[in-house]
Amino acid sequence: xxxxxxxxxxxxxxxxxxxxxxxxxxxxxxxxxxxxxxxxxxxxxxxxxxxxxxxxxxxxxxxxxxxxxxxxxxxxxxxxxxxxxxxxxxxxxxxxxxxxxxxxxxxxxxxxxxxxxxxxxxxxxxxxxxxxxxxxxxxxxxxxxxxxxxxxxxxxxxxxxxxxxxxxxxxxxxxxxxxxxxxxxxxxxxxxxxxxxxxxxxxxxxxxxxxxxxxxxxxxxxxxxxxxxxxxxxxxxxxxxxxxxxxxxxxxxxxxxxxxxxxxxxxxxxxxxxxxxxxxxxxxxxxxxxxxxxxxxxxxxxxxxxxxxxxxxxxxxxxxxxxxxxxxxxxxxxxxxxxxxxxxxxxxxxxxxxxxxxxxxxxxxxxxxxxxxxxxxxxxxxxxxxxxxxxxxxxxxxxxxxxxxxxxxxxxxxxxxxxxxxxxxxxxxxxxxxxxxxxxxxxxxxxxxxxxxxxxxxxxxxxxxxxxxxxxxxxxxxxxxxxxxxxxxxxxxxxxxxxxxxxxxxxxxxxxxxxxxxxxxxxxxxxxxxxxxxxxxxxxxxxxxxxxxxxxxxxxxxxxxxxxxx
Length: 566
Description:
By secondary structure, this protein is mostly helical. It is built from 30 helices and six strands. It has a six-stranded mixed beta sheet, sandwiched between helices.
């Protein structure tokens, strides 16, 4: 380009052979305006009808992102050669379609290669790539690509880009990052849409960020999106999953229109909180309003019956699903039935359902029965069922843990130790226990034996104080939930540092006396933590709400809402 300028300054007139490399230079530099000026000279010098120059112009405009100009030049050409056809076919839109095709086929490496070769990627290409990484569970790559957008073909990111990223991070289990991104989005002056609010509410629900969710609710009201049926349903879901069924019901009752998604949100909330009778009453109301239930509706209903111990009602719901609603039972419905009967102690009936169902049993349905064996201390059946789980899913650490707990509960420490050794030899890793708590609109995460949190010294001091106070009140640690190769005193100390206990202790020292605490746990709460939380709630007159991997536990006055049935 510098030589081309020098050439003209020295009075030499360019010809068609000059313009082809000049246009290629503009293409490589993405210098659209310089390319336009070269185009003007081409017209002035009468070179526009040349097929080689025309092809180079089409290629330059397409690769610099001006598809309209590329098409205009192509249509004005008196004749076309293979180069000009190739130039117009390979514009940004075809590149986006190729990226989309590879992403949908799960070929992210190929998608990335095409994306990198597309000269000027548009918003569609960026969003497709980001969403592709999200679907493949590569949230970090999605976030990295999103941040790269501000340096490439997209200096300004539109609301669609933000929505894709926020929803993607939630799907990848990174709700706290999604909330940080939402704040950044607002700082950059991008106005959130109804889709944004749905994604952010899902993020709040995923990390039990109730206060953050309430702030988002205020924004929704100001924006006028509250009447949107999907936003309203997401609000119901958020409040339910953050432990506030009162607010979930309030939003649900105010909704001007409710579809099956809205009803499933409120029924799912009742199920998680163990409110079986309320779920059944709302289901009747749903039918009376003419809303047709779907598969998810019955998963919610059966779960609600299971968590509330309503066996007969659950059996009737399961039967009415096919007879009244013409919905064929799926594997997840059978899993709910196994869980329902298993928790009621009807283990042989639960096993019979697995043997007679028209589906091949997966790990989930066998695990439901295995957990029931643990609850009811049936070691013989537990051993047999655990083998089935490991046969279907040999890398399932939960099966080892559940069977190990069964052995430990009946004092079979040697068998528990052998099982743990087998797990280690087979390279099966346990998922680490994590707990989250929201304090002052900020979500704090704790892991087992956490030492990294800045307030950990105070947390340990609070745990020590609580431990002494609980012992005085009659608490005895249940060391069957500790590690098998520890002495009793060491097991008790280990139990004291479970992630939910760390989160509770942090909440106690960080909130005013009497304020409720809301904890999220990624795994099932263990029996010792369940017992100790009842003691803490009674001693300190606190309501402590814990959402574990399966349901909610509301601890108050020394009693849990699950009635020790989980």
